[in-house]
Amino acid sequence: LKAIEDFQIENGVLLPSLRPMLPLLDLHGIKRLDFHNSVLEDLRDKLVAQIGELGNSEGKEKEKKLRDLLSKSFPVIQIKEVRPVVMSILKNMSYIEDRYLRFLVRDKDLYADCDIEIKRHLWRDNQSLFGDEVSPLLSQYIKDKENVLFTHETGTGFFNGSPKSRRQSEVIQKLAEMIGTNVKLYDMTLQFLRTLFLRTKNVHYCTLRSELLMALHDREVQDVISVDPCHKFTWCLDACIRERNVDVKRSRELQGFLDAIRRGQEQVLGDLSMTLCDPYAINFLSGSAMKLINHQVEKEGLPRDQPVLHLLLRMLALGLSAWEMIDSQDFHEPKIELPLLLQFIPAMMSLIVDDQVRALNYKFPVEDRDTASIIIDHSGPPPDMYDVQVSQCPIATTLAMQYTLQTTRSKDKIGVMRVLGILAQNIRGHPFEDAFLHSLVTSLIAIKDEFENEDFCTSVFDEFFFTCINVDNVNRHLMRLLWWIHPKLPVARIDTLLKVAEPTSALESSTSLYETLKNKMLSRQASMSPQQDSMAPFN
């Protein structure tokens, strides 16, 4: 007992004021281990708080004190109970010596316990380690975007929601947190995005590049945004998308940024083109161009007399050439071809006039309609120039997509049937392809009653979807359309559509959706057949 008592005195907490309390704790059955641990935790929390105060202070003494503390405490970092103290010191240091960083990287448990402030020091000179951390976030981001595009639910639509609300997503905020104020980590992230965009041609990486920059802008991370040459341009474009308008002042600013790129700085065009290749940017630029084209129709003006339209086409050209520019490393701004302005847009304007004439004609009483001449003059095939330019010029394709969406949203059945088939072969591989198909399907769902007509089914299915169906993404958009409109389809079409819509990939979400869709469509076909048989004698 004497030996135990001597050991306890020698190794216990050496505070005379605590001595009288120990027998009282013994009487309450509290173990000395529990007591010592509680004292340790209390002291540790107080020490961590003091280190935090030291870290928030200013002056040269701060770093010296932290270095001294680190050299004394680092040897006990493997003891879990004391580790938070060492981590707190590391977290508050602006520079950590390599010998400490190497030790932390080698031990998985220590690395896992590091705060993000310490990990930034570790990632700064270890690109593969940073890549391992970032990669799951980038994959999750792409997955989230595709879930919105391909979901069979109607939802709010891909383009709904403000730019600011979109960049509040968990992935964007996590990436911004990982980068902090470290320019090197930001540059590494951009390099990952460029590489992945080149490898996959997936334009969602372009969206991520813009959203990440604007998330850092929201956080006022001046260290990073001040060195990104695209910051002011992206900020201005973001404001236009948010306000859904390019006014004269903003157009001058955007044009000023483009004109200010001097010789020797051409590489900036690569990053600018990625910003403009973002589907939200393409949708905004082409949608704004369509508004101006409609405006020119209203006031009987020519497209070449509209300077803001020229700027929008210029930015579209830059965005649509992003992949080729970064791949070839040939940084120059693409020229706007004259046929686009002098032939294609006037041809589109003539289609818009036709749409207006037909809409006006439908408002008259049936007996007053000059139906034959309207059908002949304003419902025939589009001008040759329209077709030719759509197949040759990506900007014309983009404007044609936007015009097709315009006719679908205005529920103009004849307008849709005139132009939809022209796009079939020309949207393949276009940066706006999936976003367009998603918006088209959403608009077609809104006019599902039209699918009771065989001529409309022929235009949508035979002339459009069937000609480019051998690709997984088109197939998924078709399934989303069928999910909503199949009750309106002629029974004779169901078997063909089910064969065509069967997924070619082994993607679980596609196959399970197809099976559910198949059962719904076949059960409807079965319920309709008896009705048709009973009506047969009267047909």
3D structure, described in words:
This protein is an all-alpha fold. It contains 30 helices and no strands. Helix 17 runs antiparallel to helix 20 and helix 21 packs across helix 23. The chain is elongated.
- Written as H for each helix and E for each strand, in order along the chain, the element string is HHHHHHHHHHHHHHHHHHHHHHHHHHHHHH
For the termini, the CA-CA separation is: 110 Å
- Beta content comes to under 5%
Average per-residue pLDDT, rounded, comes to: 88
Residue windows where pLDDT falls under 50 for at least 5 positions? 533-539
Number of helices: 30
Summarize the structure.
With 539 residues, this protein is mostly helical. It is built from 30 helices and no strands.
Q: Which short descriptors sum up this protein?
A:
539 residues; mainly alpha
Task: Itemize the secondary structure elements and their pairings.
Blueprint: H1 2-11, H2 21-27, H3 32-56, H4 60-73, H5 83-91, H6 98-106, H7 108-113, H8 116-124, H9 127-150, H10 163-166, H11 170-179, H12 183-200, H13 204-218, H14 222-225, H15 231-243, H16 248-259, H17 268-277, H18 279-298, H19 307-320, H20 322-328, H21 338-363, H22 371-378, H23 384-392, H24 394-409, H25 413-423, H26 433-446, H27 454-462, H28 472-485, H29 491-501, H30 508-535
Helix pairs in contact: 3-5, 4-5, 9-11, 9-12, 11-13, 12-13, 13-15, 13-17, 15-16, 17-19, 17-20, 18-19, 18-21, 18-24, 21-22, 21-23, 21-24, 23-24, 24-25, 24-26, 25-27, 26-28, 28-30, 29-30
